[in-house]
Please model this.
Amino acid sequence: MGAESDCGESMATVAPGGVRKVVLPALVDDVRVDDFVLIHIGYALNRLREEEAERTLRLFAEAGLMAGEPA
Amino acid sequence: MKYIEEFRQHDLAQQLSAAIGKAVKPDRSYHLMEFCGGHTHAIFRYGVQDLMPPNVKFVHGPGCPVCVLPIGRIDNAIALVECHDVILCTYGDVLRVPASGRRSLLKVKAAGADIRMVYSVRDALRIAQENPGREVVFFAIGFETTTPPTAVAIRQAQAEGLGNFSVFCNHVLTPAAIQNILESPEVREMGSVSIDGFFGPSHVSSIIGSRPYEFFAEEFQKPVVIAGFEPLDVMQSALMLIRQLNEGRFEVENEYTRVVTREGNTKAQSLVAEVFELRRVFEWRGLGLVPYSALRLKDAYAALDAEKRFDTPAIAASDVKGCECPSILRGVKRPVDCKLFGTVCTPENPMGSCMVSSEGACAAYWSYGRFRRPETASRESVA
Model:
């Protein structure tokens, strides 16, 4: 995510899959450049917490490992 | 796309599928309702049902904002355009929902009415700014995800003194709908609908948090797992629900921790609370009149309320004859149980709202489900 300003209103540029789009970060406090955000109808709804994303991916892998163990 | 592709990995999906196959008890079934239309589409688009053991079933819920909008409210919107000559702005799916008399906003637009499809409520604000001599009404629909942006727009319109902008508010609430389903005779009396647990919505929960579901889990003794929208999220959440059911637990767990917290987005919540208040009752397609299930503008914003500015009488309108949308929205029937499905009702020419929306169950079956292997389909119909 990048930052922009339009007539005093804070704007943010997001590029999901390389498609640039300007959204309003009005609903999320303290968003910074390079943050990942959940976007919906032109607004950032929430910040994505990268450490939690990694943790969830590890959970998938763990579940898969358990599936490989004998019952 | 970062944090998207990782949650669609094929090998992990196979492993999770194996883990679920191992976790399920063969002597029982698991009926898991995904409330949200976004999950319904993830399940169909990625073939998640086919990665589940035969005794794990997805029951599709009413979490599709276009689907649950009653026909009378669309008739109201058509009347706003035809009788008050407003510019009506709304999201794309709404335009195609069938209204009374075989009409739709799209047909009314084709006949010359000034109806504009917008991506964001911000576009409706801009149209009002650019057309000071015209009344501009934003036909607002959606659950807790679309409500905060509408609140931001209403506050901006008031701050700017934008006198020609108003909102026809149809924002609805997820917890009220879940409670309505759990209290419905079909579920309570253990009759036609069996629901063992819930997938909690992704985007809605990012706003309201996981706390509002704690009441249902406790009161109705049903486990809830807040699930992300990607296929691996749905599979992991299914595994978490199955484990809870096996262990006799009914807790709220959160699989979508990368976005959802227990408290949710408190900034968005307070904006919504400042602009909106609860309606005593609101009609939902399929669910009927649901108490305290929708929002309206507070008196402080009455000048921006299209229902106060124009005449929008309650209209009792019935669905197209034969359309099973109401039963499908309650999880009582599946799209293939409807006689109109795939014959006279298709996404190109929808008869009911569930075929219109990109989140509707009928559209999901039509787009991804009709080519499924016959043996899978027959196994499902026997269960």
